[in-house]
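> call design_seq(struct)
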């Protein structure tokens, strides 16, 4: 019903919007040149991982080729990709970071 217009003779069918936003994985990709300590620092500073979790994730990326640093809404994920990429390039490291939608 159109609660905002009590004198209206019309009725509007409404559906409350309760959609969750799509979530995006931020992935770290392995390479041969970025120092392990830099990747651990990135996971700690930008993805708020504990020292132990940062080490575990970094080693998993090193061994398997890629891994999830965190899961966020689109704008937050894209901002983290841009920030981490800029930081890595400023240090001369080729670290690749990408965002992909969760299935
Ligand atoms: N393979 C790198 C090395 O041996 C470490 C590394 C880990 C690089 C994870 C990138 O996303 C990465 N120094």
């Amino acid at each position: 019903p159109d609660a905002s217009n009590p004198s209206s003779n019309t009725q509007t069918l409404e559906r409350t919007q309760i959609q969750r936003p799509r979530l995006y994985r931020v992935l770290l990709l392995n390479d041969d040149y970025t120092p392990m300590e830099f990747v651990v620092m990135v996971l700690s500073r930008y993805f708020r991982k504990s020292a132990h979790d940062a080490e575990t994730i970094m080693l998993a990326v090193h061994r398997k080729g890629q891994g999830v640093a965190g899961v966020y809404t689109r704008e937050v994920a894209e901002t983290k990709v841009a920030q981490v990429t800029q930081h890595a390039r400023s240090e001369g490291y080729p670290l690749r970071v990408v965002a992909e939608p969760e299935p």
